[in-house]
Every structure is written in C-alpha cells, then in structure tokens.
Design a protein that fits this description.
Layout (H helix, E strand, L loop, with lengths): L5 H8 L3 E2 L5 E2 L2 H11 L4 H4 L1 H7 L9 H6 L1 H9 L9 E13 L9 E15 L2 E12 L5 E13 L3
Antiparallel strand pairs: 1-4, 2-4, 3-6, 4-5, 5-6
Pfam families: MaoC_dehydratas
Protein name: MaoC family dehydratase
Organism: Kribbella speibonae
Length: 160
C-alpha cells in the first residue's frame, strides 16, 4: 500500500489476495459448544460414536455456521494492518454475508485456514464505508474449500 489515505489504500487492495491465515484445529469441544449455543444438536455434529458408524464422513463434522463464525478470527490473523490501520477506524460492524456456500465438510480434528480478497469498497455517507471481502476457508488435505462467502462489513473512519 502506497497511499497515506485509508480509502485510497483500500481501493488499491481490491482484487489482491491476502493470506493464508495460520492453521487452526477444529475440536469436538468447540463443535459441542456451538451446538449448545445454536440449538443444533444433530447427531452428525455431536455424537462421535454414531457418526463413526453412520456418517459418510466417518466422524463428526463442524456445523457450517460454526465454520462461518470462525472467519473473523481467521481473517484478523492475516490482516496485521496490511489493508488498513486500526488507527484510521472509529468503529467497524458486521453487516452480514453474501453467497455463502459449504462445498465440503470440516471433520472434527481438521485444520482450517482462510484467504481473503477485497471485492469492493463503497462510500455510504457520514464517514461510513462498506467493504466486501471474498473469504475462502480451506481444510488441510481437502481438494474443495470448506466454505466460500462474501463478508460484508462497514467501517466508520476517524475524522481527520
């Protein structure tokens, strides 16, 4: 990034891939905790013995929405001020997700990591900017990604 202007730096980053993040292991404890929080106790997630016997995956798998919820931490691990400096930001909020897909499962004990690519930057007024990042989560050893989604967020920049 060459410009001192945070919006110019963001616009320069459009289309440039970032990452990957460090690997992160998905545990049964995390899957169980997510099941408790979400109310989704489907056996394919929380019953290792049954999953071993009956699941086409031979083990429990993470909820797709658990994988989605891990994206913020994975992407944060690759940012390090690369696209924007936190000092430029007053507040940031998650606005949601576009085009969410889970092409392959995340078996318990798998390691996942993410890559991100800034797709767009759009002014929304009053110092707010909307950013769309295309995020891909891969599972170590899998040919297909675990998830592909567009993360929509808004930043309000500090007044200069």
């Amino acid at each position: 990034m060459t410009s001192g202007d945070p919006i110019a730096r963001l616009r320069e980053a459009i289309g440039i891939g970032r990452g990957p993040s460090p690997w992160r292991t998905v545990t049964q404890e995390e899957i169980n905790t997510f099941a408790d929080l979400s109310g989704d106790h489907y056996w394919i997630h929380v019953d290792p013995e049954r999953a071993k016997r009956e699941s086409p995956f031979g083990t429990t798998i993470a909820h797709g929405n658990l994988t989605l919820s891990m994206i913020d931490a994975l992407v944060e691990a690759i940012e390090n001020g690369e696209v924007f400096d936190d000092a430029d930001v007053e507040v940031g909020v998650n606005m949601g997700w576009n085009r969410v897909r889970f092409p392959s499962p995340v078996p318990v004990g798998s390691r996942i990591r993410a890559t991100a690519e800034l797709v767009s930057v759009e002014e929304k007024g009053n110092g707010w900017w909307e950013l769309v990042d295309r995020v891909t989560v891969e599972t170590e050893g899998s040919e297909k990604p675990a998830s592909v989604a567009e993360k929509v967020g808004r930043l309000q920049l500090r007044r200069q």
